User: Which sequence fits this backbone?
């Protein structure tokens, strides 16, 4: 059985990931581990003394155990196998430490964006550190999704896999196919063909033939159909759009009402376009949960 690690800090924001976790774990393939971290700040020892800090830590961890027990009970009633763990320390460091020891198949959490106020809700803080440092797939709910969350019903019936034609982007396919097999979801493939920069054209721009664009889009379509042939029963539809990947992928997600995006992120390995801060980060800002998969090493 696979394992999903879900960090929760006691806030409503952190709990917004739970409906998606339930939708995925409800297939019976995942054991869920709920994790809370009592944050210890170095300056507290100097301000109030080590003894008082120790007492606060004990009380805080006790509260977290009760908090997680309540959530675990709710999930267990839905047939999900749940374990809980409470630690103290720096949240990002402890989440990564538990990830290293547990080796979950997915880490699932919410992010309110860089301007948020919650502990787990600031990319640039804990969520950002996990997204950049984890070598494991990370499921994240971004800020725009949280604006209208939760919907009346959460399920996974449609999955989108954006591809850029590289082997690195295709690293997301096995995960998407596996989730689709477990949930019965339909998987769509999308490739966005960006416009050729004017400075890259040979000769005057007015001599640029529209047929070049047509050939590029046809090549993208042929590529997606070739990928589709490997899993014809699951990869049902392929789409080619023209424009900037950041904008077009987000527009497509909202237009099609996608339930889950599964994509590879190169953020931890190189500086290409699909890094966090590039297309991957823009997709996190869309109105769909995003599962970022590290490329195959």
Assistant:
């Amino acid at each position: 059985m696979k394992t999903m690690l879900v960090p929760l800090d006691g806030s409503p924001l952190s709990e917004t990931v739970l409906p998606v976790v339930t939708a995925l774990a409800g297939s019976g393939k995942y054991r869920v581990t709920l994790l809370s971290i009592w944050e210890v700040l170095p300056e507290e020892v100097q301000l109030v003394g080590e003894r008082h800090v120790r007492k606060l830590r004990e009380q805080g961890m006790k509260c977290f155990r009760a908090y997680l027990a309540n959530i675990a009970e709710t999930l267990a009633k839905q047939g999900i196998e749940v374990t809980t763990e409470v630690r103290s320390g720096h949240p990002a460091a402890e989440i990564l430490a538990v990830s290293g020891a547990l080796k979950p198949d997915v880490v699932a959490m919410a992010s309110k964006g860089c301007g948020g106020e919650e502990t787990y809700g600031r990319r640039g803080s804990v969520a950002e550190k996990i997204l950049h440092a984890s070598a494991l797939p990370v499921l994240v709910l971004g800020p725009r999704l949280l604006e209208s969350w939760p919907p009346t019903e959460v399920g996974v019936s449609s999955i989108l896999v954006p591809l850029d034609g590289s082997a690195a982007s295709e690293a997301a396919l096995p995960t998407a196919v596996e989730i689709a097999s477990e949930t019965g979801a339909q998987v769509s493939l999308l490739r966005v063909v960006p416009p050729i920069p004017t400075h890259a054209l040979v000769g005057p721009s007015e001599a640029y033939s529209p047929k070049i664009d047509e050939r590029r889009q046809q090549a993208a379509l042929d590529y997606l159909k070739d990928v589709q042939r490997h899993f014809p029963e699951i990869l049902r539809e392929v789409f080619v759009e023209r424009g900037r990947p950041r904008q077009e992928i987000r527009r497509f997600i909202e237009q099609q009402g996608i339930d889950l995006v599964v994509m590879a992120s190169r953020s931890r390995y190189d500086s290409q376009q699909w890094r966090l801060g590039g297309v991957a980060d823009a997709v996190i800002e869309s109105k769909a949960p995003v599962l970022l998969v590290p490329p195959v090493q």
